[in-house]
């Protein structure tokens, strides 16, 4: 594990900011690292305002998109709201369809079957629209590469409005409108919206034509916040504003479906809870059954119906967990048998693996071997794979370099999906290994902990933690601050949990303040800190509640004895 201490922010920026805000220089330093250097910038950071959202009309093609939807409504056309089967797609479909149906009922939703149709716009979905006299498809979280599909729809008299956030190819589909801020000629100021975020900008523009202000759209922000967390987009700029207010809605007045999904979680929900509690359950519908179940849940306005749908989805999630564990173990065994641990990449394949969990398995393998990873399975006549990457390495670019062996691919820097012909598998595998070997910095193959700042245990106070909590919502681009404390001494640490897997810390520094902590999966470090004269630790600061008592604790990520 590499520890990388971020560059210490310049004192001439930190001290004036600390004085202006009346905070500890530690807090001011963390703000400067996040690009916050003035009182006004700090106000916007800690109190994000919906008034600071960008004008949706700045997005390329927003005018033709809105005009085509308005025309469909005026003419009584049937509209199909189409989206991917993951969290971002199903929340986006739920958001846009719910908004349109506020005052127009000729709207249907469509989520492609993961197994029969695969990712994105499908011919089957277009045929469904044609068979049901639908003349407009609004595609969300997909469509930016659906050139042939959009042309096919046009032949059938069906128009497309595409709302996507994935990287475009050299050409974009011949749709009525393509909303995607990642287009080079799109002047929209913020480029990191998720698919549901683009859908939100669309309804914001539609509503502005009816005189609806931002207050009207607040109830939809719980969906946007969940999508932002689940899709691992940066929690910066406009995403931070949307996530901040979306979490307020999720905690105060969530839609029945989200309330039912989060029912088992006690206390205030955070964006991390959205990622690890709500998102896997929404995803489980598309992985194990059908993504339409998630849309049915998220659009339900009846808490009793929502509770039943959530119970069904909980069962799908339980099945998903079991499959995930079984396939991960099979994949690890395949890697061991093939002696592939020394490669620059991890690429595994079994035709019987469940397509719905290969993305999760890819993430598990990346955690174990920390390599750009692809997990393949059979999908009809072709092979389908989920790709995951390591910090700093762009797996999308690597796949681009292998496109001669790929039928179709799409995604992001750290996560992607692809299909290829079975006879291309071995050639692709060799090419992918060669591309990664030539382009990756070997340092990237060792997990990194980015440390924001050094801190003394005596400076960890309730006041400091109260302010740190206000840095939330946390996510890429605004991760929970990580600190390093040096010269620690053991004050009674012990291993806990099944097989002593975890480490319950008790440490002191300079004979002074003692503080407790927990280090998940760090039980093997116990002997090191017991025998070390002194050791260092990296950690986040957290709260521990036990029998009604709340105290600060360290959430330890790694320890290093002075002898290492």
Description of the structure:
The chain has 564 residues and is an alpha/beta fold. The chain has 20 helices and 19 strands. It has three domains: 119 residues, OB fold (Dihydrolipoamide Acetyltransferase, E2P); 193 residues, Alpha-Beta Complex (inorganic pyrophosphatase (n-terminal core)); 107 residues, Diaminopimelate Epimerase, Chain A, domain 1. The strands form four sheets. A five-stranded parallel β-sheet has the order 3-2-4-5-6, with helices on both faces. The termini are close together.
The CATH architecture name of the largest domain reads Alpha-Beta Complex
CATH topology of the largest domain: inorganic pyrophosphatase (n-terminal core)
Indicate the mean pLDDT: 94
Derived from helix and strand composition plus strand pairing, the structural class reads alpha/beta
Number of strands: 19
How are the secondary structure elements laid out?
Blueprint lengths: L1 E4 L5 H11 L3 H9 L5 H8 L15 H13 L3 E6 L3 H14 L6 E4 L12 H9 L2 E7 L6 H9 L3 E5 L13 E3 L15 H14 L5 H4 L3 H10 L6 H16 L3 H6 L9 H19 L2 H8 L3 H35 L8 E4 L8 H12 L3 E7 L2 E7 L6 H6 L7 E4 L3 E7 L3 H15 L8 E4 L1 E2 L7 H8 L13 E8 L3 E3 L5 E8 L4 E6 L6 H6 L3 E12 L2 E13 L3
Parallel strand pairs: 1-12, 2-3, 2-4, 4-5, 5-6, 7-8, 13-14, 17-19
Antiparallel strand pairs: 8-9, 9-11, 10-11, 14-16, 14-18, 15-16, 16-17, 18-19
Helix pairs in contact: 1-2, 5-8, 5-10, 5-14, 8-10, 10-11, 10-13, 13-15, 14-15, 15-16
